[in-house]
Structures are given as C-alpha cells and as structure tokens.
Amino acid sequence: MDDHIVKQQTAIPGPKSLEILERRNKYVPKGISNNCHSFVKKAEGAVVEDVDGNIYIDFAGAIGTLNVGHSHPKVVKAIQEQASQFVHTGFNVMMYESYIELAERLCKLAPGEFAKKAAFFNSGAEAVENAVKIARKYTKRQGIISFTRGFHGRTLMTMTMTSKVKPYKYEFGPFAPEVYKAPYPYVYRRPEGISEQQYSEMMIDQFKQFLIAEVAPETIAAVVMEPVQGEGGFIVPDIAFVQRIREICTQYGILFVADEIQAGFARTGKYFSIEHFGVVPDLITISKSMGAGVPISGVIGRAEIMDAAASGEIGGTYSGSPLGCQAALAVLDIIESEKLNERAAMLGDRIIDKMKQLSTRFDCIGDVRGLGAMCAMEIVKDKLTKTPDKEGVAKLVKAAGERGLMILSAGIYGNVIRLLMPITITDEQLEEGFQILEEAFADVYHNNESTVLAGR
C-alpha cells in the first residue's frame, strides 16, 4: 500500500496545466512571476492538488499567507455565512459589526498597556502606506527610515522603502522622496573576528552615525522595521539592536513601526514577532495570514496616533471588507483554540533540527536560522567565502517542485530557502516534505555532499 502523501499522476507540470499555461502566457503579462507552473484544483491544510491530479506538500504557504492552512473549515464557514448575508457595503458607506469586533480583538492582543485603535485595508503594501501617512500626520514630519534588505511592498512608497533592486525596483523610478535606508544586522555575514555581541554594538553605533551623516532625527516621522526580515532572507536581529533602535526613536520623538506582515499571526510562536524582543511599537502593520487567503490588512497603534488623520483621510472602497473581517476573526479563533503559537514554537524546533541534519550532509548549506516556524537555510558555493549560490537555489526550487514539494527562495542574493508551511501541517506531511527536500538537495548538490556522510 502506497502511504505517501505526494502523488504524481503526470510529469509536473502535467498536460492540463501546460494547456492553461499557454493561455496564461498569451493573456497575462510576464512581469507577474510564477513559482510553480502547475494550476491548482483544490487545497486543504498543507496539501495541494493540481488540475492533473498531482498532489503536493506545501512548504510555501502562499508566501506566508496560510498559517492556519488551506481552506480551514472555520475560515470557509465564516466566508460562506458572510457571503450569504451580504458581500460588501463599503465600511465608509454603511458599517458592519465584524470590523469593530476585529479591531477590538486585535487591539487587545497587540503589545502595549495603552489605548489602541485599528484601521483595515486590503494588502500589506496598503497597510505600510497608511502607517506612513498616519505617522507623518501625527509627527508633522516627512522622513521615513527603513532598513537594508527590508521588503515592504510594490507600490511607489513601499517600493521606495524596499531594499532589493531586482526585481522590485529596477527601472521603475523615480522613487518617493524622504525615504532613507539604515543598516540592519546580518549575523551570518558579519566581519570576521567580531563576536555577535560586538557586531550588535557596531550596528547600533552605525545607526547613530546614520542619524548624523545621512538624515537629522528631528525630521524623521517613523522608523519601519521588520522584526524578522522576510523577503530579505529571514534575518533575525539581536534583541539588543531592536531595543536600542526603539530607545533612539523614543529619544527623538520618532514613531517605531513594526512591519508584521509576514512574521505575524503565530508564525514565530507569538501573535506578533516583536513580542520576542521586549519592544512595544507605536504602530503595527499586519496582513498575509491575517485573512487566511482573503485580502485584508491593517494598522494597529496608539489611539492618539491613529486619530491624527481626520475623517476621510484614510480608508478605501474595499478596505476591511466583510469577507476579510470574518476570515480574520476565524483565524484568531483558530490560533487560540488550536494553540498555534505553541505549535509554531515546537514546529520551529523540528524544522531547525531537520535543517541542521541536512547541513551535516551538504556543504552548500552555509547557515541555518529562524524564529519560531519562520526558518531558512542560506545556500553558498563555498562555506569559507560564503559566496551566494542563487543558481543552485533556483535548481533546488525546481527539483523540489518536480517531486511534489512547494518551496520558496528569498534573500537579497536570491540564495536562501525559506520555509513557510502552514503551522497546521501534520507530522507526517512535515516528515515527507523534508524527505523530498533532501532528495532535491542530493539531485542538485550530489558533488557537494560532506565526505563524512557521502554515500549514505
């Protein structure tokens, strides 16, 4: 009896997918990338079936959108019940209680013992855009600081704040003014001979120097930081670094904005990843797994800051839609009832252990890192030089996909394998997924295996 979860009925992509792919190439612009060239038929939990009947294990989670898994019954029920009553009225035309309930619950969950308010939008980029607007309105300042390797979106403002040039910014300028990028720690690539503590202190000193050499702090409205960088390669900063940035912001009246769009909603073992750092932000941006696949985003913050904008100055036609609000409420119920924060912490330990086992076999794995279930491996051509291997990672993604495992790359150099499987993934699905990942490594890096373990 075949008890494997992954099942391949055809080559990947199969004939039906290839037929649809022809239509996609004819009518959809090439600027929209596709990690997988197959087309989904249905998905549940951490398992996806394509139109050809091939079954995959999902370690990508729609780029961190599906912490509660595909088509969770509670989310599906919430959407169906809402759609049967009304689909949309526009919150700025006629309000609905689910928006209020969601705002109330998130304000109570967000860190900080002070009055908070929340506003909802559609996408992560919109959340960041509105956090910038609110910060500027409140402080009466224009400057915004983001960080190297940070990713905040693809709109004009958020693209400007984003660090990676290709593919996100190349030839799309000119960019928005008064946006500055400060250095952000990258422990794996710190200078040789420097301890992690020394490196953290050096990075804090560089930030202080940045506020002298690059921009005056009195002109800065907000510092926007991903507590764990997502697209940048799952870079986890030192706690002291984050705390010192918060202290400097307080010193100069700069708002501290935590971008939780990829790291929030139980991914790191907390509702918000900033909780790991003992820091209370002024504003928090949220999206992705907030709606389990239904578009919704938001900004949570201190009530007096959130009230800086006058009536009509923020919002939008579909902002905080009824479907999105109900999906988000269901997500919060699932995180609580299924103890997903605890599950993410345990899952992260297992993932890191699996990655470390792989690193003992394959010398191409230069670094293993993560926080909770937000984990990654950095792939290099040589462990001594740490030369990024972007081409190898592209081959890994392809080799895994052809075997029925969906994974994603990341990093400023495109040489990081990031894992964002649903936190609800079963132990069996996780185990089989890593078996497939190991096979993909063996296929791509068969000449790179450790001499100690080669041939096992």
Automatic annotation (TrEMBL):
Keywords for this protein: Aminotransferase, Pyridoxal phosphate, Transferase
PROSITE patterns (UniProt xref): AA_TRANSFER_CLASS_3 (PS00600)
EC id: 2.6.1.19, 2.6.1.22
Catalytic activity: 4-aminobutanoate + 2-oxoglutarate = succinate semialdehyde + L-glutamate; (S)-3-amino-2-methylpropanoate + 2-oxoglutarate = 2-methyl-3-oxopropanoate + L-glutamate
Keyword Transferase: yes
Molecular function as annotated in GO: 4-aminobutyrate:2-oxoglutarate transaminase activity
Class of the enzyme per the UniProt entry, highest EC level: transferase
UniProt pathway: Amino-acid degradation; 4-aminobutanoate degradation
InterPro entries in alphabetical order: 4NH2But_aminotransferase_bac, Aminotrans_3, Aminotrans_3_PPA_site, Class-III_PLP-dep_AT, PyrdxlP-dep_Trfase, PyrdxlP-dep_Trfase_major, PyrdxlP-dep_Trfase_small
CDD domains: OAT_like
Keyword Transferase found: yes
Pfam hit, one: Aminotran_3
PANTHER family: AMINOTRANSFERASE CLASS III (PTHR11986), LEUCINE_METHIONINE RACEMASE (PTHR11986:SF58)
NCBIfam families hit by this protein: GABAtrnsam, PRK06918.1
Recorded family membership: Belongs to the class-III pyridoxal-phosphate-dependent aminotransferase family.
Name of protein: (S)-3-amino-2-methylpropionate transaminase
Lineage: Bacteria, Bacillati, Bacillota, Bacilli, Bacillales
